[in-house]
């Protein structure tokens, strides 16, 4: 039986491991390293946060929930940081409004780096240095450290999303990393009339019936609270696509007037298309170029390649495309029951390509590692869900309204962070995350 915490959750596998703590913290710094001080302060829109703020907030999380509450006599590095770097925890207190995080020019980037080093030292005093023999950590503290590590991994992907959005606002379209690998450099760009070169789309059938989804109580592996409780769902027979929708297919949708046909769109989606002037996925430009459009990636502008999975589309666009294709989006239960048997190998997508690419041999269904995949499921609590007591209970539960569930993981998701039960969520109009889709159909 796994050791459980006071909340009934199993004691985590990484929470008491100082080497794991150092690895996650170092990865955040490595992701921020290509960005200059000027890059790290600017906020490109209210939904994005500056890189400096991500670095400080993930540090504040350990200071607030681990050190302040579990180290006797702990004194904060700076009392003002509790206000500046709180995100949405009402139980902690007031905070800088989210749309105004870019106005926090002080502390400086260097001072935030010093803050990170100071908190790292304090947490490692608690955990012990890698290789040291230390007294066992209290399970409740280990659980909070583990939560903090997964929280930081979430912000690692947010850091990349937000930095990409910021750099795209620059008319020079500078690369986040000019030395980033480009994946298959020989792939063909998308041109008018292209079809998806990845082959005829196949379907993975499922007979339906009662299936169990979600995380079971007592599971020793880490999961967020919104991934449980495990429960039974009755599914009608269905089939789900064996690959992601591609840029080539999306170009066909565009050429067939997909963004101009109201019958394809949900009412809110059609209003958003017209209000925002959408003509293509986010980050596409040069749409009228006879040689085909380009897309802005973390490695800078590239030709839109027909075989690549389409990315940076909203739920509204994904739903309209599915209707145009004579299909639909899968529910999250349908997605999970198929994906867990086809999860694939874990890779660091960002180390392979700065933008989603097709599977290596064309047979990888890419349930993870390319794009987060929209589902038809609203983000709601599973039956029996109860948020944890206290401030950490605000982590997921209070956002269960006006959002849709995405499953899988993207090229920007840290290695080892995603799992078949992971429930990502965004508002239906969101396009700056690494979001794409696969189709489903009734049997």
What is the CATH C level class of the largest domain, in words? Alpha Beta
Radius of gyration: 22 Å
Number of helices: 10
Shape: globular
Helix content: 25-40%
What fraction of the residues are assigned to beta strands by DSSP?
5-15%
**Helix-and-strand structural type:** alpha+beta
* Poorly predicted sequence stretches spanning 5 or more consecutive residues: 1-9, 192-199
Number of domains: 2
Give the distance, in angstroms, between the N- and C-terminal Cα atoms: 41 Å
Give the rounded overall mean pLDDT.
91
Describe the 3D structure:
The chain is of the alpha+beta class. The protein folds into two domains: 18-168; 203-442, paralog of FGE (formylglycine-generating enzyme) (Alpha-Beta Complex). The chain is 29% helix and 11% strand. It has helices at 18-32, 51-70, 81-84, 109-127, 139-168, 247-255, 267-276, 315-324, 332-339, 349-352, and strands at 203-206, 209-213, 231-235, 238-241, 284-285, 294-297, 300-303, 372-378, 404-408, 424-426, 435-436, 440-442. Strands 10-9-8-11 form a four-stranded mixed sheet. Strand 6 and strand 7 form a beta hairpin. Helix 2 (51-70) runs antiparallel to helix 5. It is globular. The model is unreliable at 1-9 and 192-199 (pLDDT under 50).
Task: Reconstruct the topology from this structure.
Elements: H1 18-32, H2 51-70, H3 81-84, H4 109-127, H5 139-168, E1 203-206, E2 209-213, E3 231-235, E4 238-241, H6 247-255, H7 267-276, E5 284-285, E6 294-297, E7 300-303, H8 315-324, H9 332-339, H10 349-352, E8 372-378, E9 404-408, E10 424-426, E11 435-436, E12 440-442
Parallel strand pairs: 8-11
Antiparallel strand pairs: 1-4, 2-3, 4-12, 5-6, 6-7, 8-9, 9-10
Helix pairs in contact: 1-5, 2-4, 2-5
């Amino acid at each position: 039986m796994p050791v459980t915490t006071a909340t009934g959750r199993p004691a985590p596998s990484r929470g008491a491991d100082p080497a794991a703590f150092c690895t996650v913290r170092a990865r955040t710094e490595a992701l921020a390293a290509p960005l200059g001080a000027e890059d790290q302060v600017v906020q490109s829109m209210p939904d994005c946060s500056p890189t400096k703020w991500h670095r400080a907030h993930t540090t504040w999380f350990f200071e607030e929930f681990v050190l302040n509450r579990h180290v006797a006599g702990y004194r904060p590095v700076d009392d003002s940081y509790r206000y500046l770097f709180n995100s949405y925890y009402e139980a902690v207190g007031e905070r800088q409004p989210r749309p105004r995080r870019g106005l926090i020019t002080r502390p400086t980037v260097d001072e935030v780096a010093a803050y990170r080093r100071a908190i790292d030292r304090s947490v490692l005093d608690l955990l012990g240095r890698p290789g040291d023999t230390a007294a066992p950590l209290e399970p409740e503290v280990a659980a909070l450290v583990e939560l903090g590590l997964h929280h930081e991994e979430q912000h690692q992907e947010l850091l990349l999303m937000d930095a990409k959005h910021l750099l795209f606002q620059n008319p020079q379209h500078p690369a986040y990393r000019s030395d980033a690998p480009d994946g298959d450099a020989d792939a063909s760009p998308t041109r008018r009339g292209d079809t998806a070169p990845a082959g005829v789309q196949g379907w993975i059938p499922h007979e339906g019936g009662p299936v169990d989804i979600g995380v079971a109580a007592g599971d020793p592996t880490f999961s967020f609270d919104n991934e449980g409780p495990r429960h039974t769902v009755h599914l009608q027979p269905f089939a789900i696509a064996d690959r992601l929708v591609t840029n080539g297919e999306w170009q066909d949708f565009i050429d067939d007037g997909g963004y101009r046909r109201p019958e394809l769109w949900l009412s809110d989606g059609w209003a958003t298309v017209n209000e925002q002037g959408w003509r293509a996925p986010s980050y596409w430009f040069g749409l009228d170029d006879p040689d085909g459009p380009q897309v802005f990636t973390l490695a800078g502008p590239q030709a839109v390649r027909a075989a690549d999975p389409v990315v940076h589309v909203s739920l509204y666009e994904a739903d309209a495309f599915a209707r145009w294709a004579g299909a639909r989006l899968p529910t999250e239960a349908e997605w999970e029951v198929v994906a867990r048997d086809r999860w694939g190998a874990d890779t660091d997508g960002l180390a392979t390509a700065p933008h989603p690419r097709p599977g290596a041999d064309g047979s990888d269904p890419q349930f993870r590692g390319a794009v987060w995949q929209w589902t038809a499921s609203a983000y709601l609590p599973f039956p029996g869900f109860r948020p944890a007591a206290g401030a950490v209970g605000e982590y997921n539960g209070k956002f269960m309204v006006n959002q849709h569930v995405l499953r899988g993981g993207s090229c920007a998701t840290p290695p080892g962070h995603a799992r078949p039960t992971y429930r990502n969520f965004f508002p239906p109009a969101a396009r700056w995350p690494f979001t794409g889709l696969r189709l489903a159909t009734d049997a």
